[in-house]
Write a structure and sequence with these properties.
206 residues; mainly alpha; 0% strand
């Protein structure tokens, strides 16, 4: 099982064209997460899933490729001898910079989580992108404060394209054993709580 996971990690990390992880660079990357190889592999996989979601929520094309590029950039810094005190925090910082790099070049709309807070559609203006990123940071923090059940419900409700979204919400209401109108009322209350949390977070001084 361990060898299979390491093989899968190595392949995904070398998928990017250009600079690629060699065996030594890959070992150094894992060691940055933990001195225990097994724990390092688990941390890598968990962080990669987090990064994929991070890029996907922000409407980036190829979120998996961007997650791999994030790790590649960390590995390059380690190879150059840079001291990274917290590799996980460093990766999240790289991911935020990558969003600012790639979003002006892409037209893909973010998943309809934007509709949760009326977050503006992707724009090319860097200042607007930074503001949008701050709102997403607040959204993520506030979602984490909800119960796992309510968080999953909110995310599921706002997923899907326009036509499929109606059918999806009908199925969601059916799975909960409530009417579509009752589901809408429940989501309206959850959204109102979330909006207050995000507004307070966004208006707070950095």
């Amino acid at each position: 099982m361990k060898d299979e996971r390491e093989s899968r990690i190595g392949v995904s990390s070398r998928r990017k064209v250009g600079w690629a992880l060699g065996p030594m660079a890959f070992d150094r990357l894992l060691a940055a997460f933990s001195s225990d190889r097994e724990q390092a592999g688990e941390t890598y996989e968990q962080l990669r899933n987090t990064l994929v979601t991070f890029f996907d929520w922000r409407g980036c094309a190829d979120p998996e490729e961007l997650a791999d590029e994030t790790f590649n950039r960390l590995a390059r810094r380690l190879e150059e001898g840079e001291e990274i005190r917290n590799a996980q925090i460093y990766c999240l910082g790289v991911a935020r910079l990558l969003v600012l790099e790639v979003k002006p070049k892409q037209n893909r709309r973010a998943p309809d989580l934007d509709a949760l807070l009326g977050i503006a559609a992707p724009v090319s203006d860097k200042e607007a992108l930074v503001e949008r990123e701050r709102k997403f940071d607040c959204l993520e923090r506030c979602l984490e404060r909800l119960s796992a059940e309510n968080r999953a419900l909110l995310i599921s409700y706002y997923q899907g394209e326009r036509a499929a979204k109606i059918d999806h919400r009908l199925e969601l209401a059916k799975s909960l054993g409530i009417t579509l109108n009752s589901l809408r009322v429940r989501l309206h209350r959850l959204k109102a709580r979330l909006e207050i949390c995000v507004r307070d977070c966004f208006n707070a001084k950095p």
